[in-house]
Specification:
Blueprint: E1 10-12, E2 15-17, E3 23-24, E4 27-30, H1 51-77, H2 81-90, E5 94-100, H3 115-128, E6 131-138, H4 162-179, E7 185-189, H5 199-202, H6 204-219, E8 226-230, H7 232-235, E9 249-255, H8 266-275, E10 279-284, H9 289-301, E11 305-308, E12 312-314, E13 321-323, H10 329-333, H11 341-354, E14 361-362, H12 364-371, E15 376-379, E16 419-421, E17 426-430, E18 437-442, E19 448-453, E20 456-461, E21 465-473
Parallel strand pairs: 4-5, 4-11, 5-6, 6-7, 7-8, 8-9, 9-10, 10-11, 12-13
Antiparallel strand pairs: 1-2, 2-3, 13-14, 15-21, 16-21, 17-20, 18-21, 19-20
Helix pairs in contact: 1-11, 2-3, 4-6, 9-12
Length: about 475
């Protein structure tokens, strides 16, 4: 066991600390799609968006025996120790593991074999020095009523049926029993994105009551692990957090497709100040490298740990790892397409080969953006704002449509949003390590003095001019100083 695991990660006032008591700024990645399939990561449409729908589709194509073999092989290949070694090698310090309760407990309360996958992951992560955040992504009955929680009837029945509520508490008690002494477990993320949309207003009191009961049940077994509570409405609505439910806890928000500036996190900073608890950005990404760079520098500027979503998907520009769809995949993805079982089985086997890490392509531009490493194109609007007063750097650029870039496609020329920098004004761009070179992308490049100061590049305007971006390189450029 590495020195990282000599104690438990815990809350220390409004900050997290590791087992030695040293301040901890988490930088992690989510293992989405492994234990709870999400259709968009398979390039499926709305009719095949949940795990149940995907499972029914596979079984309809190849029959129950081959379907069972497919899922066993999928769990054994989609995430392996190779993935964990690669994640650690890139500099991440933890993974967030989305769990589907259907793999862990049945409706009668008997525990299932899915715990073996958790155990495997913990062993790999101990070897490679990563913490694991256990995230109940699909609670019994469903906590969201959408495809992402694998709910059986498209409703958040966790809050409608006492049977599902008892089962959820029962499951968390078992998780606490199994892992209470394991410091590789970073903490317990009780419910992923509970009660979105209209449900956030209908069952708000029930969510808080469940958080209280889950906390009491866990603490009766495990006094040490960090407990993490997510807000409602995709983890963005924190109105439920009016008091401290447990002193060793943190609050989690998620951010997608929003302006990457202080306006998108101010309410969470305010709650941190009011309650004195650590806060954590537990899911974000699905965007361009420019947005990813800017958002993650914002979190780090405000001492907010983060977890990037997700590690791997099919045919993607927005994750660190991209799998190539096999020939004929459109026939699998078409919900009403039919074919001979043997042909479907051959395509599914090709898919299993394609999602292994050695067969996948890498997206280094995504990793460079999330950490702030060269080579990288940093948009002029990606600067950190250290002014005590909020300045809307995006005013006049025509709304938020530009931020919804789940495809990751590059910005068009008209979408670049150059910044006007006035004489003597400086823009600061933090980076993980000092790059070898840099160059201003501007109509008048000589209007900017670019220099390295401590942990950042600084662009200073010698006269008023517009800056589009800094191109940061691993080789020297003429403007390096």
């Amino acid at each position: 066991m590495t020195h990282r695991f000599t104690g438990f990660v815990r809350a220390d006032g409004p900050r997290l600390v590791d087992g030695s008591g040293a301040p901890l700024l988490l930088r992690g990645v989510g293992l989405g799609n492994w234990l709870l399939a999400e259709g968009y990561m398979w390039k499926f449409g709305d009719e095949l968006s949940s795990a149940r729908q995907i499972e029914r589709r596979v079984q309809s194509l190849v029959g129950p025996d081959r379907a069972a073999e497919f899922w066993a092989r999928f769990r054994g290949t989609y995430i392996t120790e190779q993935d964990i070694a690669a994640i650690a090698g890139l500099g991440f310090d933890h993974v967030r593991l989305p769990l589907n309760s259907r793999g862990l407990v049945n409706d009668d309360g008997a525990f299932l074999g899915g715990f073996a996958h958790i155990d495997d992951l913990l062993r790999w992560c101990e070897t490679h020095g990563l913490w694991v955040l256990l995230d109940l992504h699909g609670a019994p009955g469903g906590q969201t009523g959408t495809n992402i929680d694998d709910s059986p009837n498209g409703k958040p029945e966790l809050f409608m049926d006492e049977r599902y509520r008892r089962l959820t508490i029962h499951l968390w008690e078992e998780i606490a029993r199994r892992y209470r002494d394991n410091p590789v477990v970073l903490g317990y993320d009780l419910l992923n994105e509970p009660l979105p949309n209209e449900w956030q207003h209908i069952y708000q009191a029930e969510l808080v009551a469940l958080y209280r009961d889950l906390t009491a049940a866990i603490r009766a077994i495990d006094p040490n692990h960090l407990i993490i509570y997510e807000g409602s409405h995709w983890a963005t609505n924190w109105s439920i957090f009016t008091e401290v439910l447990d002193p060793n806890s943190a609050l989690q928000f998620h951010r997608y497709w929003c302006p990457p500036d202080r306006s998108s996190i101010q309410e969470y900073l305010d709650v941190r100040d009011r309650l004195g608890l650590p806060i954590y950005m537990g899911e974000g990404g699905e965007n361009t490298p420019e947005w990813i760079y800017t958002a993650h520098r914002l979190y780090e500027q405000h001492e907010i740990g983060w977890n990037f979503w997700p590690w791997k998907k099919l045919d993607t520009l927005t994750s660190p790892v991209s799998a190539e769809p096999p020939r004929g995949w459109e026939l699998i993805a078409g919900p009403r397409a039919s074919m001979e079982p043997d042909r479907a089985w051959a395509i599914l086997q090709d898919f299993l080969d394609a999602v292994t890490l050695p067969a996948c392509g890498r997206r280094p531009e995504v990793v460079n953006a999330v950490f702030g490493r060269a080579p990288l194109r940093i948009p002029a609007w990606g600067f950190i704002d250290e002014s005590p007063l909020f300045r809307d750097r995006f005013a006049g650029f025509g709304g938020n449509g530009i931020w919804h870039r789940s495809s990751g496609r590059p910005y068009a020329e008209a979408e670049l949003m150059p910044m006007t920098v006035h004489t003597g004004e400086e823009l600061h761009f933090p980076l993980d390590i000092r790059p070898c070179g840099w160059q201003a992308d501007a109509d008048e490049p000589d209007a900017f003095e670019i220099s390295w100061r401590q942990d950042r590049l600084v662009a200073r305007a010698t006269r008023t001019a517009r800056l589009r971006a800094l191109n940061v390189t691993v080789t020297e450029s003429k403007q390096e100083s």
